Amino acid sequence: MIGRDKLAELLLPLLGSGGADGIEAVVISFDGGLTRFANNTIHQNVATENAEISFRVDKGGRIGVAGTNDLTADGLRSCLDGALQIADLLPPTPDWPGLPDPQAVEPLDTFDDSLAALDPAGRADRVKEAIAVASGAGQVTAGALKTGITEVAVFNSKGVQQYQPLTAASLTIVTQDGDGSGYSSDASRRLEDIDMRSSAEKASRKAASSKNPRGLEPGTYDVLLEEEAVAGAVEWLNYIGFGSRSFEEQTSFLVDRQNEQIAGRQISICDDGRHKGTMPMPFDFEGMPKRRVALIEKGVAGGPVHCTLSAVRAGAAGTGHALPPEEMSEGALPLNLVIDAGPDDPAGMLKHLERGILVTRFHYINGYLDTRNAMLTGLTRDGTFWVENGEIQYPLKQLRFTQNFLQAFSNVSALGSARSTITSWWGDLGAILAPSMVIRGFNITGMTG
Predict the structure, then answer these.
(1) Cα distance between residue 390 and residue 378, in whole Å
(2) Which residues have CB under 8 Å from 411's CB, separation 6+?
(3) What pLDDT digit, counting tens, does each position of 223-255 carry?
(4) CA separation for the pair 226, 434 (Å, rounded)
(5) Which of 254, 312, 348, 392 has the most CB atoms around it within 10 Å of its CB?
(6) Residue 35's beta-bridge partner residues?
(7) Please, what are the domains in the chain?
(8) Considering the entire predicted model, what is its pTM?
(9) DSSP bridge partners of 173
(10) CA-CA distances (angstroms) from residue 51 to 48, 322, 418?
(11) What beta strand segments (E) does 267-325 contain?
(12) What are phi and psi of 210, to 5 degrees?
């Protein structure tokens, strides 16, 4: 770990550099490793130690950004000079409000000593548990266990000084049994929350049950989406609809629908950077406190989230959702998504399907078909089953869906009372907390061979 004091010592003296109206430094460092396994064998251990520092400078509204992983005094000075030079070449940013002033951030414990101390041998011991489950069942398994420490710091010339150490562990398992496959995952900021054996057993059961899959004709079917599938869909809804850029560009499904009923009353989705089920993080990449934002509340459209600049442009209050400087063109985006649970026992969710499909997860989702109507397409994977009278009858080949998810979320007939933490493309900086759900009238539009 670098530590708050060392980062302050390196960066604070640079924030007073002349020639700029404001200077901001954002640090994201990682020290950890990844243990990969395949064919019931650990085949790779990757160790990573890196720190990325981004400077954002304001020169009369002209914004320059540059980054480096050279933490020497000369390296940091050179990077800052580069950001200043870039600012000189750019036109002013419309509506630029300046860098934000400091705001109080309530402390949040996001660090687990046991996870931080885990070494490659410790990861290997845990991976062996998953391998033992698969090999004991005559199956082969593959996946990865990633653990490490991330440090996030934000300092600016107006007095913002935020620092947060984070630990994170994430696990993925894909188990193969002949032509059947099963999947499971887990993620947490605490090592004790990662249950290797339980995850491996789930993937093993799915794989064993998925052998000799049958085809299914396209049509409209009732579906039970497990947590991974729900999170995969919401990940794309987030990108195309809940952020400030899609709203500003009028491509979001929230545009012109504020305070309107766009989904069923069972559906509430918020972003909450302090929720322990979302790999929490208390401030954004401007050092502003993350505020809970209702994106859909009992089916009613809310949101979107904002950073300092997008809030000014929208005439709204900032919500603490700025991305790192090098990604500022994406606007603000939620990273800690929470989907409300429902009243239904997850163990009994199948009973809500008279005739329908159980979906473990989606992959190859594309959300650009019709963003204003939240239209997604993609494939099922690693455990898709035909269900009759609440019982699994046989496995299905991979299916393609093409579905308006506002419509899908208007047809939810059962919502699980338990939720799982699912990682997303933003990695250790957040996650999606999702329940399972039964949806009536889901559109299956094709099938793989």
Answers:
(1) 25
(2) 264, 439, 440, 441, 442
(3) 999 999 999 999 999 999 999 999 999 999 999
(4) 9
(5) 254
(6) 45, 145
(7) 4-208 (3.30.2290.10), 213-447 (no CATH)
(8) 0.96
(9) 143, 184
(10) 10, 19, 37
(11) 269-271, 293-297, 300-301
(12) -95, 0
